[in-house]
């Protein structure tokens, strides 16, 4: 009896209906293809692609990553093939699956972002995620994500040009995440996702140098989870738009922390690297929890811990 | 669905074969069925603070018994490789594989080939030397202590170089090639960057096809995260920039395709 | 030969000479007494006491702590016996040892801080560490530590009244740590210490409630180390005053990351909880590293990774 | 220097004695020399993601063999206690101890005493029942499955209460005391907060000295971090507020000293 109830895991994000609240975090799942050898992409609520810019970006020099205690640090620097090849190759690949497509967009200037957004207008992307929080590029990215006014402004611009609903992805490297969430909501964001990585540094004391060539990198993985949960809670209590929570999710229990704190959906990032099945397992585990706690609809769990 | 998978493999044997160098045989479920020389596996520690894989090349592949051999260096105290070295038969280890492209066999088949290994780049040449049907000159470079030489001797003519001069040609693999007057038609090489750089320029000077196995830090091991890139002189079709992924497009590249 | 060189581990912090750069992090070592059963306090550069206020504080309700991945979360809420008992009991205890005494000071208002600082004027405390970064109390604390102007102002006030040199302890929960460091330097800080804990949250999904009664708590331990190292690096490159680095130090290698990044001294916090000998081992390991790398003086290592 | 220390203790035996309840004997170096009933040890996992100790009471102390027995509940999947339950003889575990004050023996000596244990509060009463020289009524409350009852029977008159009524008095320990008409002169108790609350109010009503062992989350275990406080009606001399530290001032308190 305990496990027999029907339960509805569907999530509505700005009118886009996901079969379940679990997606992949941008940059950790390529464009789905590499992991499709391990995971049935049809079982995911959505695939979020690696950030794509108007033109190809070479990214940062190597070493681009380092292991940290209970996590990792990356400074990939948003290497990407540019929007043209992306539309020609990666979107058609994802279209073969019964999952939503969320395209993560990066840029150096507002114009860069707008160019990508416009280019995507006639593509079968379901949602756009605007990355204003990448700590690993000199210009753009985080510069927009650490100042409420810039964040509001770019959101407004993107909204003017976007045909799809817009997710704004926030940086945790701020004094007040609530303020940032309010700013992008004021700018018209349909959905907010957080957190991107926390800026960190690792030093190789034997070689007396930085562990990644970029000096700093973004810390991700289970080590940062408590900070991410706190920020999702604060953001969810500051705005009305739905929140996609992420940061260190490795299993359903972790994901449920975010959901109970106020996230309508979740992303699995770093965990895929050591467990390619992680995202699918999270989706299954959430459903099991719903049955156990007799939650008919996933939204009955969202934000219930106050 | 492809042949890559994550498995829990049982340790069959563990042996120290030189200072800080260990040899481990593991029992796989299916990974060994698909593995080819030059591919690698991602090995995971049980230490919950260390989440990234350690990529380790396949040293031998026993398809019949479904076993793989890895030969690896313990790089320091408290490292993941040190934890691997403490595994005992019967214990198990999480692995992901087989990963990467492996050495192309066709170019060398029936030719006079040099297999060049340096340091911890020596092990992957063993399975290649076993599977490649060719006139094989095996040039292995060591700092001081030798390992795997008996196995190599069964699969070709072995030339040794040691930095401290304790065995074979004093110096590096290039010194051995010069001293022994080797003149390969095809080269396969794995080793530290300075060695690969020397091999690459030697091969390109002589217009010999040369396959090099590259190394870079990895997170996903399957081509998704773009951590492990190497520079390419040409724009790469996949990345659209001058980068190839060591884990997926490599680890083996034609020397002219990559900058070292 | 490799290990025979003499090496000088002494550190000068605003004129106070520590025998080595290793101290205990405030709040993780009581007032030294509890751990004196395990550790020879004479082997530490300094003992930093638990935060003390003008009057006794009861702290927060329990549960006050939770385990997090590779770390912990605390919301002790600065329980302390008040400055009177502190001066009568804890300072005399520490005076028995050949180590420097750093008194950590907390308060709700500027006046609270000043009262404690003045009360300490004639006490044998060597340095004062002003905690403007505690995330676990409603008033005071972090409110001063998240705004550069407030931070500069309270630093200036404290400096006016303090007889001992003043360490300002910064919060990592800010957009720009460099700006905060500059603010307290401008206010007259003699030394800067960082980082205090990162605000986090953990949810007990089975009981559907917060894991600590205070809802949020401060995350500490090895999980946060890369963030701490980055902040120490940024602060060290922004100001001239010496920096005390901390956040997840468990062994000498960890401490050396901070020193190479620019810290003149380090504190060991959470690690003492599971390894009471941690601080002493860090001091020993730093000396071994100095010998190995032929560093004659510890300052030859400070900030050499640029 | 005191008697507290951190040790690596060897596991001597591990046994499951009820559903989710395990009994483990460990070989200490010196900790057992100083341990007294009612004290506890901090037990550490080998899992590098779990850094905090699990405080576990001493169930038995074998000074001669320098061994300690702990009886503990596995609280769920993926927990530290689950990891302890997988330890096998010959493996080792990091422990810190002996911690806390322990039960004062003097007040009960020679008197008619009740030792009351509930659930996972049962184990610490065993060593107390062995060491206390008194007329001992041992009142142990269980949900359903019994454990340690044979051992208790050797050390006093055992009264059992079970919530499901499967053995002894149906209900809780207070029901057993009422049903059996016990009238102790001194009480020692350990168990869940609702049980301790009931025992405390019973004892205070009857003006019986009552010692309760309290529980709270711990980080340091030695009194330094102030994580593990319990409320006190009076201002505490050490804290100067209405708080005592369970790990250092307790875990055993006179019932009138604490709020439960
Ligand atoms: C394709 C490939 C094949 C390899 N084959 C072998 C082999 O057969 N035998 C062998 O001994 N070594 C091999 N290596 C190198 C081996 O991966 C590293 O020595 C090992 O990862 C170091 O891990 P650690 O636990 O000792 O060090 P740690 O310092 O604990 O490693 C920390 C992190 O850095 C990464 N890392 C550190 N050094 C390297 C490195 N040189 N290359 C890539 N990642 C590194 C680790 O994987 C880990 O994620 C190979 C590397 C690659 C890329
Ligand atoms: C003084 C004292 C004596 C104890 N004696 C015993 C005993 O003899 N046998 C026994 O089975 N249990 C005992 N407990 C309870 C035991 O400490 C917890 O059940 C255990 O810590 C839970 O750890 P876990 O790994 O199962 O759970 P996890 O959920 O993995 O624990 C996470 C963290 O929370 C802490 N924690 C969780 N539950 C408790 C709790 N109830 N009390 C204190 N900390 C907790 C853990 O120590 C750990 O730091 C005692 C507790 C105290 C304070
Ligand atoms: C290797 C790597 C690359 C990433 N690339 C991007 C990116 O291109 N765009 C983006 O918005 N976030 C990127 N991120 C951030 C993740 O999407 C995610 O926000 C963050 O890693 C936290 O989640 P996790 O702890 O589950 O990984 C990247 C993260 C990693 C580890
Ligand atoms: C239980 C606990 C109590 C703390 N109390 C204080 C305090 O009273 N004053 C203060 O400035 N910092 C306090 N801190 C913060 C530490 O001093 C330190 O800045 C932080 O824990 C990071 O270092 P760590 O990771 O080594 O623990 C406390 C930390 C912990 C874990
Ligand atoms: S390791 Fe992720 S792309 Fe190579
Ligand atoms: S656990 Fe630290 S004071 Fe009790």
Automatic annotation (TrEMBL), chains A, C:
Its EC number(s): 1.3.-.-
Entry's Gene Ontology cellular component terms: cytoplasm
Protein residues bound to FMN: 26, 50-51, 104, 131, 169, 195, 221, 247-248, 269-270
Required cofactor(s): FMN
UniProt keyword annotations, A-Z: Cytoplasm, Flavoprotein, FMN, NAD, Oxidoreductase, Pyrimidine biosynthesis
Recorded catalytic activity of this chain's protein: (S)-dihydroorotate + A = orotate + AH2; (S)-dihydroorotate + NAD(+) = orotate + NADH + H(+)
Residues binding substrate, per UniProt: 50, 74-78, 131, 196-197
Cofactor binding, note field: Binds 1 FMN per subunit.
Taxonomic superkingdom: Bacteria
Transmembrane segments: none
Compartmental location: Cytoplasm
Record: active site: 134
Residue span(s) of domain Dihydroorotate dehydrogenase catalytic: 11-290
Entry-linked Gene3D superfamilies: Aldolase class I (3.20.20.70)
Annotated pathway: Pyrimidine metabolism; UMP biosynthesis via de novo pathway; orotate from (S)-dihydroorotate (NAD(+) route): step 1/1
GO molecular function annotations of the record: dihydroorotate dehydrogenase (NAD+) activity
GO biological process entries: 'de novo' pyrimidine nucleobase biosynthetic process; 'de novo' UMP biosynthetic process
Its job: Catalyzes the conversion of dihydroorotate to orotate with NAD(+) as electron acceptor.
Protein family per UniProt: Belongs to the dihydroorotate dehydrogenase family. Type 1 subfamily.
Record's protein name: Dihydroorotate dehydrogenase
UniProtKB/TrEMBL annotation, chains B, D:
InterPro entries hit by this protein: Cbr1-like_FAD-bd_dom, Cyt_c3_hydrogenase_gsu, Dihydroorotate_DH_ele_sf, Dihydroorotate_DH_Fe-S-bd, Dihydroorotate_DHASE_ETsu, FAD-bd_FR_type, FNR_nucleotide-bd, PyrK_electron_transfer
Annotated GO biological process: 'de novo' UMP biosynthetic process
Keyword Flavoprotein set for record: yes
UniProt keyword Transport present: yes
TM stretches of this protein: none
Keywords: 2Fe-2S, Electron transport, FAD, Flavoprotein, Iron, Iron-sulfur, Metal-binding, Pyrimidine biosynthesis, Transport
UniProt pathway: Pyrimidine metabolism; UMP biosynthesis via de novo pathway; orotate from (S)-dihydroorotate (NAD(+) route): step 1/1
Cofactor: [2Fe-2S] cluster; FAD
Cofactor note: Binds 1 [2Fe-2S] cluster per subunit. Binds 1 FAD per subunit.
GO molecular function, one term: metal ion binding
Positions in coiled-coil regions: none
Gene3D superfamilies listed in its UniProt record: Dihydroorotate dehydrogenase, electron transfer subunit, Nucleotide-binding domain of ferredoxin-NADP reductase (FNR) module, Translation factors
Record-linked CDD domains: DHOD_e_trans
Binding site for FAD: 54-57, 71-73, 80-81
Residue positions binding [2Fe-2S] cluster: 220, 225, 228, 247
Domain FAD-binding FR-type per the UniProt entry, residue ranges: 4-105
General function of this protein: Responsible for channeling the electrons from the oxidation of dihydroorotate from the FMN redox center in the PyrD type B subunit to the ultimate electron acceptor NAD(+).
Protein family according to the UniProt entry: Belongs to the PyrK family.
Subunit structure: Heterotetramer of 2 PyrK and 2 PyrD type B subunits.
Name of the protein: Dihydroorotate dehydrogenase B (NAD(+)), electron transfer subunit
Taxonomic lineage from the root: Bacteria, Bacillati, Bacillota, Clostridia, Lachnospirales
Gene: pyrK
